[in-house]
Amino acid sequence: MKQFAFLLLLFLASQTVHSWKKDEFRACDQTPFCKRARFRKPGSCTLIATDVSISDGDLTAKLIPKAEQDHDQDPIKPLILSVSVYQDGIVRLKIDEDPSLDPPKKRFQVPDVIVPEFEAKKLWLQGASTEKLDGSIGGLSSVVYLSDGYEAVLRHDPFEVYVREKAGKRRVVSLNSHGLFDFEQLRVKKEDEDWEERFRGHTDTRPYGPQSISFDVTFYESDFVYGIPEHATSFALKPTRGPGVEESEPYRLFNLDVFEYVHDSPFGIYGSIPFMVSHGKSGKSSGFFWLNAAEMQIDVLAKGWDAENGILMPTEQSRIDTFWMTEAGIVDTFFFVGPGPKDVVKQYMSVTGLPSMPQLFATAYHQCRWNYRDEEDVENVDAKFDEHDIPYDVLWLDIEHTDGKRYFTWDKLLFPNPEEMQRKLAAKGRHMVTIVDPHIKRDDSFHLHKDASQRGYYVKDATGKDFDGWCWPGSSSYPDVLNPEIRSWWAEKFSYKNYIGSTPSLYIWNDMNEPSVFNGPEVTMPRDVLHLGGVEHRELHNAYGYYFHMATADGLVKRGDGKDRPFVLSRAFFAGSQRYGAVWTGDNSADWDHLRVSVPMILSLGLTGMSFSGADVGGFFGNPDPELLVRWYQLGAYYPFFRGHAHHDTKRREPWLFGYGIFNIHVIALNSSQEAEGELYLDDGKSFDFKHGAYIHRRFAFSNGHLTSSNMASSALGNSKFSSGCIIERIILLGYTPGAKTALIEPGNQKAVIELGPLRFGGQHGGGAITIRKPGVRVAEDWKIKIL
Question: Which listed residue (514, 528, 536, 616) is catalytic?
């Protein structure tokens, strides 16, 4: 039996390193809720808003069918709607079943994503005005104040919610303007009904039946939409339905372990952020966010998609229509008015939080491989970086460093002295990262499994037993990190007492946290697995990795007594993950298409809050040729998170193995107007003192022959100070018109010598570059340099 189990694990593991097979994952027409939703026609929603009033500072209403229902159909019970408004131009729309009508279960609302301080920004509505819009067939609208220049509108019949400008009544974002809203209510199963769903030998019991939600969202004054990562596709999202669309597949948001994913595809991969940003040629932007962690499918609709079934819409505004579908949960949506792209992102992050401040070392180059064999291999790789004078700050260890894939352990033969190994790196100012995944080896001799099992901390299968799935260790179970108590328990495992062999220079990598289950449907956890409070996995799937990331980051904060910023890299992510660390684009391939698509993928992550992100330099799978690897390092230097990583079946590719240097000096150039500007941020690189004002934030601007340094630091954060004696040794201006000979430095009225160069292009001296040598100015002070 043990031999059979070993062979099964070997087979399953081998499947994870083969190229992506499309038929292993569901398409929309194989996903019943998506298929049903796409069959809906514009105007099919018959709900109207009644009992409209102001309650607890919100605009509230009930949604009921306008016409009498067919007695043969299940009755549609009233839905509860609330519209809340917040500072900075944010509208929150919630729609849920009426709890007073005793639905079979409470629908899941995603906890611990919205930051606590957001609720303090709520504007308590005192009243609403009523108006009848021109062209309205018979419905009134309730209008409430949003912010200076904007209003939120609830149209009663037909039901619709939108935000508009006060002046001119021009719309910004709307929901259900095309009448596509649908809310499948929970109900009791009939005797002759079969609610089970089957896919490739797996059966989803679906004990609560269909419970999907879908609706249309329209962005006005818009020509492009962006966001909703993670997909290996263009930055501006391409239409998925309508005239001219060849492959009609929506953008899928469903966290999956997709190895060697294909580029230029709407298929969902490791993370999900259901936040979309629109932008128009007029320069205006708006945004929409749906706080829902169930599987989601989103169509971007091409112009003319509704030509045969058109609904009367404002025709004077350009617009982009989208269609949002999810398997479960509630409507908990946010409208962001902008009006600029930065405003939209700022509004979104006021809801989900700002990105965490990384430690300084984390912004440098990271060297990783599956796997560095042993302590000798680690020492040799580290020494080679020194020998070739290549800068790097972090060395990583993958799963083979553990004792039989038991996380928080070390292979005693290969890594017998882990603390000494880390101290040698730390003596050079370097750090180490080890991998800790969510699957826990089911081995009664493994203390972590024994403790989790005895405490009942694992997620349960549909029968109530500990869920048992296959991953790297073989038979594995997964902690129920939806539960705050279990997250606290997990966080404690990173203490120096519990993580034996760890030191203050060791940080963490969370992989496989979609979660990946080799023998599960679509290589993940079954949807009918149970979490805290009877919540089904289908309802929180996309947030599982988020909670795991959160617990790990909290563990590192606790380990350092709240003084040390954590570094945790996660593969899976959700809205709010930016608060806990970095992410990367997963198991890419060593080819030019994957290098190319990494740019829009990382831009999309940044636009949706995940600013600290990157892609595996060189590609995880396959062997890059020297040209591809060089170009990837040149690009990777601009990734916020910069790491080289490779599969164990690939050839060694440390940067010195290719015979010539791959690191270059990068120069910021003046634009065609002979101007440039930038910012510099400095702090101690590791603590949280920056929250109390202990940092330097400078703005540098060059214009009209003057380079100035000015302070941007806020004086409102506290009395803590951070000082730096750093002196600027030289200033290079690329693209400056030749002729300058000296520079005048103020204050002090000192002069500095200007030289041409030092850059050369194609063997010719770069006459468009000048160098101001030894200006002697400090980075932390105000000064001005005038080119004479």
Answer: 514
